[in-house]
Amino acid sequence: MISAVEANADGLIGPTHSYAGLSPGNLASSLNKGEASNPRAAVLQGLDKMKTLADLGLPQFVLPPHERPNIPFLRSLGFSGSDAQVLERAWKDAPSFAAAACSASPMWAANAATVTPSADAHDGRVHFTPANLITNLHRSLEHDQTKRALDALFPHASRFAVHDALPSVAHLADEGAANHVRLCRDHGEPGVNLMVWGREAWEHWDGPYPARQTREASEAIMRRHAASGAVLARQGKAAIAGGTFHNDVVCVGALDTLFFHELAFEDTEATKAAIRAAADGFEPQFVEVSTADLPLADAISSYLFNSMLIRVPGQDRLTLICPTETRDNPRSHAVAQGLAASNGPIGHVEYVDVRQSMRNGGGPACLRLRVVLTEAELAATNPAMRLTDTLHARLSDWGRRWYRDSLTAHDLADPALLDETRGALDELTRILNLGGGFYPFQHG
After folding, report:
1. Measured by CB atoms within 10 angstroms of the end CB, which terminus of the chain is less buried, N or C?
2. 175 an active-site residue?
3. Which residues, in sequence order, are CB contacts of 112 under 8 Å at separation 6+?
């Protein structure tokens, strides 16, 4: 057996972190629309969450924020003049497009890509497909820059294959790893790739919220990655209608364990049977939470299932890394503590403060992209992007210097913010060794 570990690559929260309410179906995002955000607190919370994982012994990487405001996007819509004038005119004449151009949504790295580890790929490489995220305009702007970030972190083509996103059409709507769970006996062994989809490409959809992932997109990614052990399952329609915009709001898995809400899948028994049939050399463990124990509304508001399920080195049972909102909700807290008190596969629960992200609808699991790596693959990553105590301190200082402690929609139109974000990102490219011209504005 080849030894492998599960690393996390977290999105570094950007300077334009705000509550714009741009995602229909994301209830927290809609609820907090228009309120003032605190980008400085957000980036520090995200960095501290990364350090918590690194301190537990898991490899932790940093994915850089995208350039926002996205001036090239606004120029493509016909706005002209200096960059400051483009931003000003866009906010005056097309504020919805301007808001999309300022979104810091790339922070949620669970949507960055779908990842297939080398143990599951026929060519023995780690495969990445950046998500096209076409359901929401502000997120559809991400995949080109996401590919550049993944190329920077995983630079060796002999070990890593970073593909382009799927074509940006509704038939192939793809939301990345937020709808993918890998189960296995051990990270270095072949596993089961559970791909969860919300609708079929030509299906008439009349739900109150969009079903963001198509079956055809999931199938295309598995073909592209030549991935073994693929299982496709339909997301529960009732879950989508209740505000489960991604499957990771009601489901998380690690190693042989799948932890999920009873409404997560349209056909739970068929999904479990398919996973068992695809599992080679291990018996999957299913930890299901009933609606009676945790109503869907509480699952969504507390983000119990948007926690990180990890194996801490030296521990036999899994650890669930929950947001503090899980602890603050009596029903979800009771479920979490019941897990730890049981003899089941999840034996430990820890809580992290990512409140700024949570208010926009993203918990601990939203902020990270999981990547299984062998020792050789880990050694082939960009070392400047791996979180250490030194890098954590350096990035924390960077965030305190560059980020505002309050930001409203009105502030996003401030030309000074454009200069601030570019100054921050320019310095960040040197900190993370991203090379010249990583961001569009650096091309001169």
Report:
1. C
2. yes
3. 9, 11, 63, 106, 130, 131, 142, 146, 149, 150, 176, 177, 369
